[in-house]
Every structure is written in structure tokens, then in C-alpha cells.
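For the sake of transparency, this paper describes our internal protein records without simplification. The record that follows is passed on verbatim for readers who wish to inspect the format:
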Amino acid sequence: MKHWPPPSPPRPPRPRLSLFQFHPVPVGRRADGWTPARQGAFIGHLAETRSVIAACRRVKMGRESAYRLRRRRGAAGFAAAWDKALGKPHTPVDLASPKSTGLHAGYRSKVGIMQVRMFAGRYRGTYWKPDNNALLSHLAQLDRACREIDEGG
């Protein structure tokens, strides 16, 4: 009689990779301010810790300034990523729409999309991704503006 090795136990499911995408909130240039990289790191730490205070401490920013950043004009994507990181229901934001994000196509094409990567519930990094839809939209706006100038004069 043959003795086969016992079947191996089933593998546990692989941890899921989750992504949070948003356009960074437009702010002034300051090394100690809310840079796009710091905004991405905040969302990643917020998803990991589920605590605004803990996430702010990790990125060395204040809780009050984080809430002010969330309320700024053009922060719809940031606020949606914040809600998603906390597991709260949020209204979806179409990153390709200036009406939805509150950001001009020129700004969206210049800064791109921040992509926060999580693996197994841990923050793994923030990556920059070009926003080609915004670039094409911005080029179309410039093209229309040039046509209006040519037709008018």
C-alpha cells in the first residue's frame, strides 16, 4: 500500500494591497508645511492607525492644521481619501472632473495624483502618478482658447 504525504493545509489568504488616490491639496511652498508627500504619508498613517492624532504625530504636523487642510478649497479628493482611510462612507470623487475635485485641469496635470499604498494594513509608501486625463483636458482648454483668439482677431 502506498503512503502519500498528507495534503498540505490550505494557504491563508494573501494580504490585500489597497490604494488611496487623490490630488494633493494646493498649498503654499513651505518645507515645514503640508507638502504633497506629507499629505500622502498622513493618509497612509491614518489608514494604518485609524487615529488622526497618531497620524499627525507621525508626519510631525498638528491635528488642527490637518482639519484646516481638509476644509480647504480643492480638498475634495483628500477628504474622500481621509474618509476611506477611516472606513467611513464617503461620496465618490471623480479625479478626472474639475467639478468633483474643485481643482483646475492645469493644476491637476502639473501635480499629478498621489497614490498611497498599503499592504496587509501597513503603510508602505506614497507614489506620484501623472494625471494624463487632466493633461489632455488642459491641452483641450488651451486649444479652445487659441481658436477663440484666432477667430476674434
User: Anything to note?
Assistant: The helical segments are 36-49, 52-59, 63-71, 76-86, 98-101, 105-111, 132-152.
